[in-house]
Amino acid sequence: MTQHDVTDRPPVHALLADGTTVCIRPVRPGDHEQIQGLYEEMSPENLRLRFFSPCRGSARLSADRVCGPVGPGCRALLAETQGRVVGVGEYESGDEKDTAEVAIAVADGLHHRGVGTLIIEHLVSAARADGITAFTADALSENHEVLKLFADLGLRTERHFEGPEVRCTVILDQSDAYLTAVEERGRTADVASLRPLLRPRTVAVVGAGRTPGSVGRAILHQLHSGGYTGRLFAVNPGATAILGVPSYPSVPSLPRTPDLAVIATPAHAVPVVAEECGRAGVRALVVVSAGLDSGHAQALLTACRTYGMRLVGPNCLGISNTDPDLGLDATFAAGHPHPGTAGVAVQSGGVGIALLEGLSRLAIGVSSFASLGDKYDVSGNDMLQWWESDGRTDLALLHLESFGNPRAFSRTARRVTRRMPVLTVDAGRTEAGRKAAASHTAAAATRTMTRGALFTQAGITATRSVGELLETAALLHAQPLPAGSRVAIVTNAGGAGVLAADACAEAGLALPAPAPGLIDDLLAVLPEGAGVGNPVDATAAVTEQQLTECVERIMRYDGIDAVLVALVPTAVAAATGDDLVRAVTGAAGRRPKPVAVVRLEQGLSVELLPAAEGGSVPSYAEAQSAARALAHAAHRAAWLARPAGTMPHLDGVETERARTLVADHLAAHPDDAWLDPRTCAGLLTCYGIPQIPWAWAGTEDEAVMAADRLRGVDGRVVMKAHWPGLVHKSEQRAVRLDLRGDQQIRSAFRDLRTRFAGLMTGVVLQPLAARGTELFAGVVQDQVFGPLVLFGLGGTATEVLADHAARLAPLTDHDVHDLMTSPRCAPLLFGARGGGAVDLGGLEQLLLRLSRMAADLPQLAEADFNPVLATPDGVTVLDARIRLVPCRPQDPYLRRLR
C-alpha cells in the first residue's frame, strides 16, 4: 500500500459519546506538528501508559513514524475537531499478513468521550478491507482505560499477562455482537447530538420579518404562541422586537448563545448565517429556506460539520416537541400539534401537515415532529433512535422519499419495531423498473421491490397512502394486536356484511365459520331471523343489549382473533345508531382482542370512539379501510411472534479465493463485464453452489470430444453459444437442445458459428438435465440499498410471469423461508397436486450461499441463475451469468454522518 492509497480515502464525520462531531481521516505528512504536540501535551503518567516510559522523546519518534512513508499493511487515522487533532490510531502488520499491531492515543482532557473507540472502529473496518483478521496490542496491566476500550468493543478479545505487561489479541470478525455494540454506541451519541435540536434551552429565529407574510415571522409566532418555555430571540438587523420577542441584528450579538437556530433567510444568505452560528457555538440548525444551489448546499453542510452542528433541512416545514415542559413548535404549520405519543418524520411538508392534523384530530397527538426536507443531515434513522429513548413515543410514523444508509436504517428499525409500531407510506411505488436491464435479475428488481424488502425485513408497516397510514395508526394506537388473522364480522345489515367480507378476503384475512357451540350461543342472544355464519347478520331488529352480548361471546371464542362490526343506521326503533355503537365500544376492551367498527354514513375516513375504561375503538367509513388496518395489525403480530433470524454457518466457503478471482478479473477487464463461463463457474465453486457438469469447446472437434464426456439422459446434450456480453441466449436463439451423436454435435456447432460469425468465441456443452421445477435466483447490487436477492419461477417466461420475491442480503434463515414461500409458485416446491416436494434444504443452501457471495463481493453487480432445476433429489444451477464492476468496498455499518 502506498502513501497515496491511504491518504486518498475521503474524511468522514462521526459523533462522540457526548454528541459532538469529529472528523476521522487518514494521517498526512503535514499533520506531524499537531500529532507530536498531542503526545507532548500528555501528562507524564499518560505518556508512561502509552509508551511504557515518560520520556518525551517518544512523542517525536511516534509522530515521525505515523506521518512517514506508509508500507503495505499499515494505516494511521486521526480524529480532529475544528482543525485540532484530538486522537490518533495506527496499525501495522508484520510477517503475518493477517495480524496487525494496533496503538491508540487520545489527547488529555478528552478521555471517556469515545474518541479512542471511534478511531478503533474505523481501524477495524479498514483492517478487514485489507484482509487483516486480528489486532494485537501491548499495554501495561495497570492501563485500565485501554484494556476496557478493547474489552468493550464487542469483539472477541484474549489477554495474555507477562509480568507488568498484558498482550491483547482482538479478533476482527463482524459478528452480530459487534454490530450491536456499535449500534448502541451510535445510539447514545446520536441521541446526545439531537438534544440541542429537540430539547433546546434557547432558540433564535434568523430571518423573522417585521411584517406579516414571512416564513420566519410565522415560525416565531408559533414558538411564542405555543408556550415555548426556553429563551426565545429573533435575529433581524432592522428591529429591536418582533411579536414581543427581543430581536438582535446578528447571531453573534445575541446575549446568550442559542442551542438551536432556525434559519429562514433567502437561500444565498444561508451559508453565511450558518458560519456565524457555528462560530458563536450554536449546536443545531433548522433551515426552512429553499432553493439552495450546489455551492450554497456544500457551504451549509461544511459549516455544520466543521462546528459540529446537527442540521434539519433545508427546504423543510420545521420541527416540534410537544413535551409540556418544553412546548417547542418551530414550524410554520397553521396550528399547533396536539401533544401525544406519535413520533412523526417526513420529507414532504404537505404530508407533514396532513399527519399533524390527522393525529391531532384522532387525539393520538404528537410527541415530536421533524420535517426533514432535503435531508442533508438528520434522517429517519436519527429520529427512530430519538423516539426509542425519549420515554414518550409509542408509535412512529415515517414518510421517507430516500434513504441515506438503508442497511443501518434496517438494523435500527428492526430494534425499534420490537418496542413500538413503525409505520410508513411507501412513496414512489410507480417508478419504472430499470431501463435497459441487462438480465432477468435486473429486470425484476424494481425500486418498489427493494423498498418492500427493506420494510418487510425490518418489521415496518408499509401503507400505500397517508389516509391508510392514519387508519392503521388509529387501530394500532387504540386496540391490542390480534393473535392471528381470523376475523369475525358482525353486522345489522346483510349488504354491509357482504362488503366487509369482500374487504377482509381481499386484505388476506380469514373468515372462519363459527363452531357449533358458538352458533348456539349467538342464536340464544340474537333476534329471531338472525344469520349466524361469518358474517353474523344480527338484523336491523338487534338491540343494544343483544349486540353487546353477541360481540362479547364472539370475543370469548378462541377461534377468532379480531371482530369487525359493520353498522348502518336504520328506521327500526329497537336501537339507534348511537345505541349500537355504544354496544360495541362497551364490549371492546374486555378481552385482549381488537375490535373495529365500520359506519358507512361516517363522514371522516377514520375516527376514534370513546370506549370503556378510557380506551377507544377505531371507526371507519369504508370496510376496506378497517380490513387493511386489521391486516397490518395481524402482520405486525406475526412479525413480533417470530424470533429474530440468524445467519447459518456455511461450510466450504472460500471468500479470499473468491476476492482474488474477482480482483484478477477486474484487473484484466477494468470496465464492468460479464464473466466468461470458466470464471463464473470458478466463482460459484468458491461458494459451494451446485452446477450441472459442463465443458468448453472452441472448435467443432473439441465440441464432439466434450459431448462424449457429458452424455446425459438418453445420451443427449445441450449446446450454448457464448460471446462476451451475451445474456439472453434463448432470445438470441443461441441454444441447441436434445443433441444426439457426433453428427448432430458438429451440425449444431457449425450452425451457431455461421449465425454468430464474428461474435461467438466458443460453446458450452452440458448434459440434458432431468425433468424438474425450473426456478430463478439472482442478485442485483443496488447503489443505495446494497445487494438484493431475488427468487421465483424460472425458465424463458420468468420476466413475463414476474413471479418473484426479494429480500436484502445478508439473508437470515427467516428471510430464506420468506423467499421460498412468497412467490405464487411456492406450492409446487412443497409438493402440491400430488407431486413430491423438491429438495428444500438444498434450495435453502443455494439462497444462503448466493446471499453470502453478494455480501462478500460488493463488485458483484448482477448474478442471474436461470434456470435453477429443483427436484426431490437436489438443486442445480443450469445456467449462470455474473457481471462485475469496479467498486471500493464500503462498510455500511461504520459509524459516520451522512
UniProtKB/TrEMBL annotation:
<dbReference type="InterPro" id="IPR032875">
    <property type="entry name" value="Succ_CoA_lig_flav_dom"/>
</dbReference>
<dbReference type="InterPro" id="IPR016102">
    <property type="entry name" value="Succinyl-CoA_synth-like"/>
</dbReference>
<protein>
    <submittedName>
        <fullName>Bifunctional GNAT family N-acetyltransferase/acetate--CoA ligase family protein</fullName>
    </submittedName>
</protein>
<dbReference type="InterPro" id="IPR036291">
    <property type="entry name" value="NAD(P)-bd_dom_sf"/>
</dbReference>
<dbReference type="Pfam" id="PF13549">
    <property type="entry name" value="ATP-grasp_5"/>
</dbReference>
<dbReference type="InterPro" id="IPR000182">
    <property type="entry name" value="GNAT_dom"/>
</dbReference>
<dbReference type="InterPro" id="IPR013815">
    <property type="entry name" value="ATP_grasp_subdomain_1"/>
</dbReference>
<dbReference type="Pfam" id="PF19045">
    <property type="entry name" value="Ligase_CoA_2"/>
</dbReference>
<dbReference type="InterPro" id="IPR003781">
    <property type="entry name" value="CoA-bd"/>
</dbReference>
<dbReference type="Pfam" id="PF13607">
    <property type="entry name" value="Succ_CoA_lig"/>
</dbReference>
<dbReference type="InterPro" id="IPR016181">
    <property type="entry name" value="Acyl_CoA_acyltransferase"/>
</dbReference>
<dbReference type="InterPro" id="IPR043938">
    <property type="entry name" value="Ligase_CoA_dom"/>
</dbReference>
<feature type="domain" description="N-acetyltransferase">
    <location>
        <begin position="22"/>
        <end position="177"/>
    </location>
</feature>
<dbReference type="GO" id="GO:0016874">
    <property type="term" value="F:ligase activity"/>
</dbReference>
<dbReference type="Pfam" id="PF00583">
    <property type="entry name" value="Acetyltransf_1"/>
</dbReference>
<keyword id="KW-0436">Ligase</keyword>
<dbReference type="Pfam" id="PF13380">
    <property type="entry name" value="CoA_binding_2"/>
</dbReference>
